[in-house]
Design a protein that fits this description.
Elements (H helix, E strand, L loop, with lengths): L4 H11 L4 E4 L11 H4 L4 H10 L4 E5 L5 E6 L17 H11 L10 E3 L5 E6 L9 E6 L2 E4 L4 E3 L4 E2 L2 E2 L1 E4 L8 H7 L15 H21 L5 H17 L5 H12 L10 H16 L14 H4 L5
Antiparallel strand pairs: 1-2, 2-8, 3-5, 3-7, 4-5, 4-11, 6-7, 9-10
Helix pairs in contact: 1-3, 6-7, 6-8, 7-8, 7-9, 8-9
Length: 306
C-alpha cells in the first residue's frame, strides 16, 4: 500500500489484469489522447503517472481489458418510454429485459457505483471482445462499454461524490440473452443496384453525402461515436461500389467531425479512428447506385485507414 489512495486503486485494477490509464483529476476525461495504446498493467508505469499527478482518477480501457461493462444510469427526472413505463433507473430497465428473457437480472458480478447514482456492472467480454461501446442500444438509461470504450474505475472521485466498489465479486460471464441483444444482425445481402443515369446517380450520391455529413455535424455528445461510425460505413459502401472516392469520403467525414474536436473529450484521433473503422467495414459491402460503376482501385483504398 502507498500513501496515495488513487495509485492504490490503479494498482488494484491492474492486478485484476485490467489495462489502466489516468483520467483527469475530478473528471471523466482521459489525461492522454492515446489512452487506448498507453493503458497498461505495469506497476512502475502506473507509479510514474501518479507521481506526476497524484489525484488523477483511474481509467480502465474496457476492450483492452477483456471487459464488457453495463452502465446503468438514473432517470434524472426524465420519463421512461412506454416500453419501460415506470422505470426510474437503468437497473429497472435491466430487470425488465431480464424478465422478458425469463431470467434474473445479472447483478451478481463486480459492481461499482457512480457519483450520479449509476451502477457499472462488469462482465467478461463475449466473443473475443467484438462488442463495441453502445449508447441506449440495450434499453433506456443503459449504455455499454466494450471495444473502443473505457470506464472510470473504483477509487476515483468527482465533485459530486466517488466511484465506490459496491459488490466485490468475480467478473461474471454475461447472460446469453444480453449478448444476443447487443449483437448486431448480420449485414444485409447487397441487392441489385439502382438503375439510374450517370447524372441522376451523381445527384443521388451528392444528396447522400450532404445528409450524412449534416448528421455528423449535428451529433450530440454521448452519441457521436455511433453517428460517425454509421456515417463512415455508409460512405464506405459507396466507396466499395465505386460511387465515391475514398480520399474524398474520408476528408468529408473528417471535416464534418471537426466541429466536435475539443468538445467534451472528443479528439481528432477519435474522429480518424472511428471514420477509418467505418470506411473499412463499409467497403466490404459495396453499394452501386448506377449499376455501371467501376470497382474501387487499390490506389483509392490508400485513402482509408491511414
Amino acid at each position: 500500500m502507498s500513501d496515495n489512495p488513487f495509485l492504490d486503486a490503479a494498482l488494484a485494477a491492474a492486478d485484476r489484469g485490467w489495462r489502466v490509464f489516468p483520467i483527469r483529476s475530478g473528471g471523466k476525461r482521459p489525461a492522454f489522447e492515446r489512452w487506448q495504446q498507453l493503458a497498461t498493467t505495469d506497476h512502475e508505469q502506473l507509479r510514474s503517472w501518479w507521481r506526476a499527478a497524484d489525484r488523477w482518477n483511474i481509467g480502465i480501457a474496457t476492450g483492452e481489458s477483456g471487459l464488457l461493462v453495463v452502465d446503468l444510469d438514473p432517470a434524472h427526472g426524465a420519463t421512461a418510454p412506454m416500453r419501460f413505463r415506470g422505470a426510474q433507473h437503468g437497473s429497472d430497465v435491466l430487470a425488465m429485459l431480464a424478465a422478458d428473457a425469463g431470467a434474473e437480472p445479472p447483478t451478481d458480478t463486480y459492481t461499482v457505483t457512480t457519483p450520479s447514482g449509476g451502477r457499472h456492472l462488469y462482465f467478461r467480454a463475449p466473443g473475443g471482445g467484438a462488442h463495441r461501446t453502445t449508447i441506449g442500444t440495450l434499453g433506456w438509461r443503459i449504455d455499454t462499454r466494450g471495444r473502443g470504450g473505457c470506464v472510470v474505475g473504483a477509487g476515483s472521485s468527482r465533485a459530486g461524490g466517488s466511484y465506490d466498489l459496491a459488490l466485490e465479486r468475480p467478473v461474471a460471464e454475461p447472460p446469453a440473452w444480453l449478448v444476443r441483444a447487443l449483437t448486431p444482425p448480420p449485414p444485409p445481402t447487397p441487392g441489385p443496384p439502382l438503375r439510374l443515369s450517370a447524372t441522376q446517380a451523381g445527384r443521388y450520391v451528392q444528396a447522400i453525402v450532404a445528409s450524412v455529413t449534416a448528421d455528423v455535424e449535428s451529433a450530440q455528445p454521448g452519441y457521436r461515436h455511433d453517428v460517425v461510425l454509421r456515417a463512415a460505413r455508409t460512405f464506405g459502401r459507396l466507396v466499395g461500389g465505386g460511387e465515391l472516392d475514398a480520399i474524398t469520403a474520408r476528408q468529408a467525414l473528417l471535416q464534418a467531425a471537426a466541429v466536435h474536436v475539443g468538445v467534451e473529450g472528443w479528439t481528432a484521433r477519435e474522429s480518424e479512428r472511428t471514420i477509418d473503422d467505418g470506411l473499412a467495414y463499409g467497403i466490404r459491402l459495396p453499394r452501386s447506385i448506377s449499376g455501371a460503376a467501376a470497382p474501387v482501385t487499390p490506389d483509392a483504398r490508400e485513402g482509408v485507414g491511414r
